[in-house]
Design a protein that fits this description.
- This protein has one domain: Ferritin, core subunit, four-helix bundle (Ferritin, Up-down Bundle).
- About 75% of the residues lie in helices and about 0% in strands.
- The longest helix is centred in the C-terminal third of the chain and has 31 residues.
- The two termini are about 30 Å apart.
- About 30% of the residues are buried.
- The structure holds MU-OXO-diiron.
- The site of MU-OXO-diiron (FEO) has 7 residues, from helix 1, helix 2 and helix 3.
- The site of MU-OXO-diiron has 7 residues, from helix 1, helix 2 and helix 3.
Length: about 160
């Protein structure tokens, strides 16, 4: 069984992961509309991963005999002026998500909910990877400044991102 306090917090996490998926899908749509297919690909794959994160938490609640409560998902922004603006937002968002995971981990430890702690460990590692990947792109976008050629090179590279096996 899962205690109510943890169940509520995990339901909030499901909502936050679905919101992340919406946010990245919205970025994907925006960059696709501006013919940056590589950026659109990267955001689209990220949106799918966030959906999977939500389902991971969802499945955990169900397996533990809890009740999943799906709530309204806030509408994301619909346009970004530059790739740098979008990726700076992604990085800030992922840092916020890491904070949420750490708070959940604190709560699981307080409640001696070792099963939730075990699930969260996967998310802790995932967040390290997501922060590192997005920060690298932020720094590269800063480095290239106004160079359109370099921007298209990054766009081309991000078009190679495939789905995780
Ligand atoms: Fe599921 Fe990018 O946090």
């Amino acid at each position: 069984m899962i205690v109510k306090k943890i169940e509520d917090a995990l339901n909030k996490q499901i909502n936050a992961e679905f919101y992340s998926s919406f946010l990245y899908l919205s970025m994907s749509a925006d960059f696709a509309s501006k013919n940056f297919d590589g950026f659109a690909n990267w955001f689209g794959i990220q949106a799918k991963e966030e959906y999977e994160h939500a389902i991971k938490v969802y499945s955990n609640i169900i397996e533990r005999g809890g009740k999943v409560i799906l709530a309204e998902i806030a509408a994301p922004k619909t346009a970004w002026k530059t790739a740098l603006e979008a990726f700076e937002e992604v990085y800030a968002h992922e840092r916020k998500m890491t904070g949420m995971i750490y708070n959940l981990m604190d709560m699981a430890r307080e409640e001696k909910d070792y099963a939730t702690e075990e699930m969260l460990r996967w998310f802790v590692n995932e967040q390290v990877e997501e922060e590192s990947n997005t920060l690298k792109i932020v720094e590269q976008l800063k480095m290239i400044g106004d160079s359109k050629g370099s921007l298209f090179q990054i766009d081309h590279r991000l078009s190679k991102r495939g789905e995780k096996k």
